[in-house]
Amino acid sequence: MSHKLHGKKKRIWLLAWQGSVASLDQRLFYADIGNLGQLSVIALPLAHRPLFPGFYMPINVKDPKLLSALSESRKRQAPYAGAFLIKDETGTDPSLASTSETEVIHELKGKELYDRLHEVGTLAQITRIEGEQVILIGHRRLRITEMVSENPLVVKVDHLKDKPYKKDDDVIKATTSEVISTLKDVLKTSTLWRDHVNTYTQHIGDFNCPRLADFGAAICGANKNECQQVLEELDVKNRLRLTLELLKKEMEISKLQASIAKNMEEKISAEQKKYYLNEQLKAIKKELGLETDDKTALSAKFRERLEANKEKCPPHVMQVIEEEFTKLQLLEASSSEFNVTRNYLDWLTALPWGNYSDENFDVHHANTILDEDHYGLSDVKERILEFIAVGKLRGSSQGKIICLSGPPGVGKTSIGRSIARALNRKFYRFSVGGLADVAEIKGHRRTYIGAMPGKMVQCLKNVGTANPLVLIDEIDKLGKGHGGDPASALLELLDPEQNANFLDHYLDVPIDLSKVLFVCTANVIETIPNPLLDRMEVISIAGYITDEKMHIARDYLEKTTREACGIKPEQVEVTDAALLALIENYCRESGVRNLQKQIEKIYRKIALKLVRQGLVPDEPSPIVASVVTTPENSYEKSENGSTGIVVDENLKVDDEAEDSSNKEPSKMPEPEVQISRIPGADNEDLVSQGKVESEKVQEILASKDIAKVIIDESNLSDFVGKPVFHAERIYDITPVGVVMGLAWTAMGGSTLYIETTLEEQGDGKGALHLTGQLGEVMKESAQIAHTVARALFLVKEPDNPFFTNTKLHLHVPAGATPKDGPSAGCTMITSMLSLAMKKHVKKDLAMTGEVTLTGKILPIGGVKEKTIAAKRSGVKTVLFPSANKRDYDELAENVKEGLNVHFVDDYSQIFDIAFSEDEITEK
């Protein structure tokens, strides 16, 4: 039968035979396939690339119904289907095909799938089906004409034939030759493409122009839309041109890839060559004795570093160091263990074994330093001086851990620095706020990559002495994470009984930390774990009153800020009234950090003002003083109406002008002074050959008022804005049902009002309604106060059913601020009784204290802060629990001045004072 078939039909028959076509009827069908009209075929969607005639393609079919239809088709005499490329969705990149897109294509069915198919595809023979994988081989081009059925998708197709072309056409011949030439160049770079050629020629036969175009497009790496364009092109000349473009692009990519590979190879070769030459150079220098090897040099370096403290180094540490030296010599320099040992020796030899700084236990010297650095805080300074005195008698200041507690900005960290300066110890600070990893304190094991010792070992290496002062900041904010509990790890570090043999995980040798002085800081001690707090001596820093803040601002903050801004004292004057207003209305918190920020804000604006007005020369000279003519806008009128000249304050005319406090000013040559015109001065008397004596200049300067910026209460808001705080006192005379209480906050003390009013009355409607964002403890205090007030009122007025028949509404103003604490109990009772009896409480009265159900007054905290808050609000009479008398007596006299304080232990005493008969009853 094969002798009867000729030409094209014969090749198609052979192809079908090699594709394992089973029956004779099928072979006959393919022999006559060119004579068929429209066919109905199952449509198979292709996700990534179109199928070209003569090429195999495996596809995955996940739809069981479609897979079954393909199997049935293969069993019948029509083992073929139509393979069509899927169109891209709008806005997607055709070069990117993800797995998720492939999954979406498998889910397309029926009409939706039909709309997404390209019209032109390939008639594909189903050669094999293995599970979900179907192997196809392309034969000829098809075009979809209409849809026959939806599930599985069956379409009618027309067979497409190439347009007639002339083989002898010069353009086709030239294009074909260029395609072949380009293919040869591309095939040299890839063995996989050469296998494509062998397979194609075995199954299809010799190349002609259409096959050549299809082959080139099929094996190139172009995107699917470009390949589909080649498949749809029936004009052989255009198809060859399109394929040539794709192959040229593929050739450029191959060249670029080869260039990159070559550059990388050259770079690696150069590095290898450099390494090889360096190794040769080291070997030559070693043979000539010009240089020792790395291990010998390292050992010499470490031994030299250790030599200074070798006699003081503990024997057990020296033994470990010698063992590590021996190990270092035996290890190869390229091994990982070598680097671990080198780093370990680096740390061991860098620590100050037995190297102590000489301490200064002079109490007078320490007192002077503390007074220089801090104003007030007499109780804190006294405690520090006691600590130093004990150290002087013992000869060592070990054995105590000081914990400075107080609100932010009161100077806890700077006090620690002052103690270090007073004792002549090195100072090291590290913060443990948020620390959640024990390794930060105890170090990592050396087996880990990037292992490091803990903070304490790093501290000793940095300071270079074994007895520094270590400030552990924010110890109340320790974290607790998956890395362990740092608070427990700090016990070994801080405990005087344990830290003489502190064991760091990295060093793994005991370190003596008994001579280290630890100072901790905390805002609140309640959050410090009890075992840790038990080892500390807490020194409380309550904060500063207004008078102390005034002194601090005047003597410390203002001076430091002025120098930092480069402003001379003669150029600025900040009045006491302005400072007082700044403290009262802007910086009411306990500390002075915010006060410092506001002063810096003022001086920055002053500096800008001076520069804008031309009061600062562009190029100041340290020797020549220039007096320049003052423009109208460069000086201001002083209070007496006179004007001042502008002088370069950075320039030295005479030492006495610079600092009048120097008794023996250093002698310097008489400066050459250049004088310009000065308003109101006789310039002819001043100028003599361009030179005048410095004394005359001083007389002129002294006779004129220097222009200065004056900050007072009236213009303070121009520099720092509107006041942040307003008067806490709302009422001059508190209405019925309103009583002033005293509260402690993290910002210091404050006053607050407890207000009670009648909400509803009726038989048996006695109840209590609370507002003001009160915490659980404060809500319980209100319930206790209600019960105590009812019991006391029943004794005072047995026949008055006020509490039984009245629903009360108790409110604590500033509803946006959360409030909690038991010390408002007595204030709440007084507020309720004031409303019940319709009596005002005593004028200028404030109180604080926790109340029990039996009316007993329990002690409270924050006595100093609450006393300061009472004074700030103009309170004259204050009620404290009797148990707090000792705390009040310890306060400074200037804090207690002007207050009439009563100490009570039962609410009946408060009742007698608050509702004394000499006060005005309801108006």
UniProtKB/TrEMBL annotation:
<dbReference type="GO" id="GO:0005524">
    <property type="term" value="F:ATP binding"/>
</dbReference>
<dbReference type="InterPro" id="IPR003593">
    <property type="entry name" value="AAA+_ATPase"/>
</dbReference>
<keyword id="KW-0378">Hydrolase</keyword>
<protein>
    <recommendedName>
        <fullName>Lon protease homolog, mitochondrial</fullName>
        <ecNumber>3.4.21.53</ecNumber>
    </recommendedName>
</protein>
<dbReference type="InterPro" id="IPR046336">
    <property type="entry name" value="Lon_prtase_N_sf"/>
</dbReference>
<dbReference type="InterPro" id="IPR054594">
    <property type="entry name" value="Lon_lid"/>
</dbReference>
<dbReference type="GO" id="GO:0003697">
    <property type="term" value="F:single-stranded DNA binding"/>
</dbReference>
<keyword id="KW-0547">Nucleotide-binding</keyword>
<keyword id="KW-0238">DNA-binding</keyword>
<dbReference type="GO" id="GO:0005759">
    <property type="term" value="C:mitochondrial matrix"/>
</dbReference>
<feature type="active site">
    <location>
        <position position="866"/>
    </location>
</feature>
<comment type="function">
    <text>ATP-dependent serine protease that mediates the selective degradation of misfolded, unassembled or oxidatively damaged polypeptides as well as certain short-lived regulatory proteins in the mitochondrial matrix. May also have a chaperone function in the assembly of inner membrane protein complexes. Participates in the regulation of mitochondrial gene expression and in the maintenance of the integrity of the mitochondrial genome. Binds to mitochondrial DNA in a site-specific manner.</text>
</comment>
<dbReference type="InterPro" id="IPR008269">
    <property type="entry name" value="Lon_proteolytic"/>
</dbReference>
<dbReference type="InterPro" id="IPR003959">
    <property type="entry name" value="ATPase_AAA_core"/>
</dbReference>
<dbReference type="Pfam" id="PF02190">
    <property type="entry name" value="LON_substr_bdg"/>
</dbReference>
<dbReference type="GO" id="GO:0034599">
    <property type="term" value="P:cellular response to oxidative stress"/>
</dbReference>
<dbReference type="GO" id="GO:0004252">
    <property type="term" value="F:serine-type endopeptidase activity"/>
</dbReference>
<feature type="active site">
    <location>
        <position position="823"/>
    </location>
</feature>
<dbReference type="InterPro" id="IPR015947">
    <property type="entry name" value="PUA-like_sf"/>
</dbReference>
<dbReference type="Pfam" id="PF22667">
    <property type="entry name" value="Lon_lid"/>
</dbReference>
<dbReference type="GO" id="GO:0043565">
    <property type="term" value="F:sequence-specific DNA binding"/>
</dbReference>
<keyword id="KW-0645">Protease</keyword>
<dbReference type="InterPro" id="IPR020568">
    <property type="entry name" value="Ribosomal_Su5_D2-typ_SF"/>
</dbReference>
<dbReference type="GO" id="GO:0004176">
    <property type="term" value="F:ATP-dependent peptidase activity"/>
</dbReference>
<dbReference type="GO" id="GO:0051131">
    <property type="term" value="P:chaperone-mediated protein complex assembly"/>
</dbReference>
<keyword id="KW-0720">Serine protease</keyword>
<keyword id="KW-0067">ATP-binding</keyword>
<keyword id="KW-0496">Mitochondrion</keyword>
<dbReference type="InterPro" id="IPR027065">
    <property type="entry name" value="Lon_Prtase"/>
</dbReference>
<dbReference type="InterPro" id="IPR003111">
    <property type="entry name" value="Lon_prtase_N"/>
</dbReference>
<dbReference type="InterPro" id="IPR014721">
    <property type="entry name" value="Ribsml_uS5_D2-typ_fold_subgr"/>
</dbReference>
<dbReference type="Pfam" id="PF05362">
    <property type="entry name" value="Lon_C"/>
</dbReference>
<dbReference type="InterPro" id="IPR004815">
    <property type="entry name" value="Lon_bac/euk-typ"/>
</dbReference>
<feature type="region of interest" description="Disordered">
    <location>
        <begin position="630"/>
        <end position="681"/>
    </location>
</feature>
<comment type="similarity">
    <text>Belongs to the peptidase S16 family.</text>
</comment>
<feature type="compositionally biased region" description="Basic and acidic residues">
    <location>
        <begin position="649"/>
        <end position="670"/>
    </location>
</feature>
<comment type="subunit">
    <text>Homohexamer or homoheptamer. Organized in a ring with a central cavity.</text>
</comment>
<dbReference type="InterPro" id="IPR027417">
    <property type="entry name" value="P-loop_NTPase"/>
</dbReference>
<feature type="domain" description="Lon N-terminal">
    <location>
        <begin position="41"/>
        <end position="251"/>
    </location>
</feature>
<dbReference type="Pfam" id="PF00004">
    <property type="entry name" value="AAA"/>
</dbReference>
<dbReference type="InterPro" id="IPR008268">
    <property type="entry name" value="Peptidase_S16_AS"/>
</dbReference>
<dbReference type="InterPro" id="IPR027503">
    <property type="entry name" value="Lonm_euk"/>
</dbReference>
